[in-house]
Specification:
Elements (H helix, E strand, L loop, with lengths): L4 H12 L17 E5 L2 E3 L11 E3 L2 E4 L5 E8 L5 H18 L9 E9 L3 E4 L4 E4 L2 E6 L3 H16 L10 H6 L4 H5 L10 E4 L4 E2 L4 E2 L1 H15 L4 E5 L11 H7 L2 H15 L8 E8 L2 E8 L7 E4 L2 E8 L2 E5 L1 H11 L8
Parallel strand pairs: 5-6, 10-13
Antiparallel strand pairs: 1-4, 2-3, 4-5, 6-9, 7-8, 11-12, 13-15, 14-15, 16-17, 17-18
């Protein structure tokens, strides 16, 4: 689930304040070096013996006096040594990506560590409350062999059969799938602020044909949830709450995997691949009819939908999804994502 906005804002401001600084000025136990990059995107070649590659954004890259590179993950959390094992694989993934980039020349990471900030005091005056965030350093050992073995297991899992959802599955609990069966036991009689019904993903029942207009309607609903508080898009249920199923969609898309792939491709091409991390798809059978459940979590950045030759900003408002004009969108974005400096 996305990090609450206030923590993202604090995290970004802490990182930004470190660019060009020697880490020794923060804590004497931190290795000496100048912070040269913040929140840099990386993409790796495939990990050996797998089809898995690493793509993501590291926190801080530091260059020490000898020209070596130190990779740092910044956390706002209680500082304890248990964090070392918890984030070792994450740092190992970014290390692999920096050393084995898909494009350009790699750099050698000589050291990794966690820079953990945790507030311990507050100073108040008439206008502001100032929090004190002392930093603590934990060096994280490199384990390239262990990382490769971990990714090989991930590769096997991804290539294996799709596991069934269950109430004991931690990933299902994270996605909220353990609650879906209960949710379907009491489908709202009408749409609301967190629930949208769509009769199909791409089939137009009026023209009796496949239609991009129907696809766009689903994408608008998804973007509206991304830009609000999240929600569920239920495909295969009419606006009146009637269970229709996905038979018409399946006639052209053949099976669940093809439908999910088609939806993902639509999201990537018309909203953006960076938003896929907030969107999860599952299928359930109700009244002997297949339903697609699209769980959408609130995005950390504003999401637009490409409609024809323009980009449109949508927000969930009550039981409908509304387009915002330029002035409305700008005010909404500045209010909900104050740290946004650029709109794609």
């Amino acid at each position: 689930m996305p990090m609450p906005g206030v923590f993202s804002a604090i995290n970004t401001r802490l990182q930004g304040s470190l660019i060009g600084k020697d880490l020794k000025t923060i804590n004497k136990n931190i290795p000496e070096g100048i912070v040269i990059d913040q929140e840099g995107w990386v993409e790796s070649n495939a990990v050996p013996k797998t089809d898995v590659y690493i793509k993501g954004k590291f926190d801080l890259l530091v260059k020490d006096p000898n020209g070596n590179y130190i990779l740092i993950d910044l956390k706002i959390s209680s500082p304890d040594v248990g964090k070392i094992d918890k984030y070792k694989t994450q740092l190992g993934a970014y290390k692999f990506a920096l050393e084995n980039p898909k494009k350009g020349k790699g750099i050698n990471i000589s050291k990794m560590g966690l820079l953990i900030f945790y507030p311990d005091a507050v100073i108040s005056n008439k206008e502001n409350a100032l929090l004190s965030f002392p930093a603590k350093w934990f060096e994280v050992p490199s384990d390239p062999d262990g990382f490769i073995k971990f990714i090989i297991n991930i590769d096997k899992l991804l290539k294996g059969p799709k596991p069934r959802e269950s109430k004991t599955c931690k990933w299902c609990q994270y996605r909220g799938l353990d609650k879906i069966s209960t949710y379907f036991g009491d489908i709202p009689k009408s749409e609301n602020s967190i629930t949208e019904f769509k009769s199909s993903l791409r089939w137009d029942f009026d023209s009796n044909n496949i239609s991009s207009r129907i696809e766009n309607a689903c994408l608008k609903a998804i973007a509206g949830f991304l830009n609000f508080n999240g929600g569920k898009l239920l495909i295969g249920i009419s606006p009146k709450g009637e269970i229709i199923g996905l038979e018409k969609d399946m006639n052209s898309l053949r099976d669940e995997d093809k439908l999910e792939l088609h939806l993902n491709n639509l999201i990537i091409s018309k909203i953006g691949k960076e938003y896929c991390q907030y969107i999860y798809t599952a299928f359930k059978t109700i009244e002997n009819k297949l339903i697609c459940v699209v769980d959408v979590y609130p995005s950390q950045s504003p999401a637009f939908v490409k409609i024809d030759h323009s980009k449109v900003f949508y927000v969930r408002t009550g039981n409908s999804t509304q387009p915002y004009d330029i002035d409305e969108a700008l005010r909404y974005i500045l209010r909900n994502w104050p740290s946004v400096s650029e709109i794609q």
